[in-house]
Amino acid sequence: MASELEDLVNFLSDSRPAIQQHAVDLVQGLTGSPDGIAQLGKLSAKLLPSLFRLVPCPEAVSRPALVALVNLSQEPSVQQQLLGLNALARCMDYLREGSCAGREELLVMLLANLTSLEAGAEALLQMGRGALEGLNAAMLIKLLLDPPGQQDAYAHVATVLPNLTRFPSGRRLLLQPGRGLLLALASQLRSRSELRRRGCAGAIKNCCFSCEQDGTVMDIAAETEALTTVLDVLCGITAKEADEAVREALAEAVLCLARVDAARKQLWACDAPGMLKTGYEFEENRTVCACMEATAELFLSDGFEPQPEEGGAQLGGGGGGGGWAGVSSDEPAVSVSKREVSIEEVD
C-alpha cells in the first residue's frame, strides 16, 4: 500500500495531463476520510509541495488539489509544513492576482486552517514587516465587505478573522484607529449568511475579551456605531437573531466591555441598559441571560436599578422574562456582588 501511495504522489508531477488529472482526483478522494488523511500524512514531505504546485493550474487540476490541501491542513503538523512552504503568502497572491478564479472559497478555507496556528496568524498579519503589517487582513476584510456573489466565495473570511483576533498582537494591530475592524465586523451581524454572522460575532468577542490588558479598550469604546449595532443584534431591537451562538458571543463581548469602567461609560452612552432590558425580557438562552444579568449588575453598581414588571421575574432569576427600569447614572452607586461568568476566546 505504501509503495502504491508513493507512486500516486509521483504521478502528481507527471508531464502527461491525463495521468496527473487521475492522480490528483484519487488524492482528493483519499483526503475525504480520516484513514486516507493518515495514510497520506506519512508522505506529506513530498505530497504537499506536489499538490501546491498544482494550485495555479487549470481548474480541473487545481480544484481537487485545493480540496485535498484544505482537508489535509486540518492537521497541525500539515499546517506547519505548509507554512514552511510559504503557502499562506502564495494563497494571498493568488487571491490578489485573481489567478484562481472560481476557487477563491477554497483558498480562503485553506487560509482559515493555516491561521489556526499563531505562526500562521502572524504570517497573514505580516507582523514585524513595517508598512506591510495588516495589509493582507485589510484585503480580506474588503473582500468580505464586498457584496457577495451567488456563491458567496468570501464568506469563509469570517472564519479567518476569529483566528487573527485570538492573539494579543493581532487584536492590537487590527484595532488600531482608522482600520475600521469593529465596524466592519458589526456590519456583517445582519448578513443572511450564518457563517458570516457567527465568524464576525466570534471575532468581536475576541476583540473585547481582554481589551483592558491589550490596551485597546479606548479604541473599542470609540466605535459607537459598531457598539450600537452589537447591542441591537444581541437584544433583537431591529430583528431577532435566531442563532444562539451569535447571541452568546455578543453577550459575552458586551460583558467583557462592561467589566472595564471606561468601556462601560460608553455602553451607557449607547443606551445599553435600556436595550439589554428589552432583550432580556424575551431571551431564553441561559448563557445569554447569565451574561446579561452579570452586565446589569455592573450597571447597577453605577446606579442602575432593575425593577420587576407586573407578573415578571426579577433580573437575576436565571432566565428571561424580567423587566428593567429606573436607569439613571446620576444616582448613588449601589454595592452589589458581581455575578461570575467564565468567558473563553473563540478558536
Polypeptide structure, described:
There is one protein chain. The chain contains 21 helices and no strands. Helix content is 62%, strand content 0%. It has a domain of 103 residues: Leucine-rich Repeat Variant, CATH 1.25.10.10. It holds the Pfam family DUF383. This is Protein HGH1 N-terminal domain-containing protein.
CATH third-tier fold name of the domain at 1-103: Leucine-rich Repeat Variant
Task: Please report the number of helical segments.
Answer: 21
What share of residues is helical? 55-70%
Overall mean confidence score, pLDDT: 89
The shape, in one word, is: elongated
Percent in strands: under 5%
In CATH, what is the class of the domain at 1-103?
Mainly Alpha
Question: What letter string, H or E per element, gives the SSE order?
Answer: HHHHHHHHHHHHHHHHHHHHH
Largest sheet: none
Provide the CATH architecture of the domain at 1-103: Alpha Horseshoe
The total strand number stands at 0
Unreliable segments of 5+ consecutive residues: 306-339
Structural class: mainly alpha
The CATH homologous superfamily name of the domain at 1-103 equals: Leucine-rich Repeat Variant
Radius of gyration: 24 Å
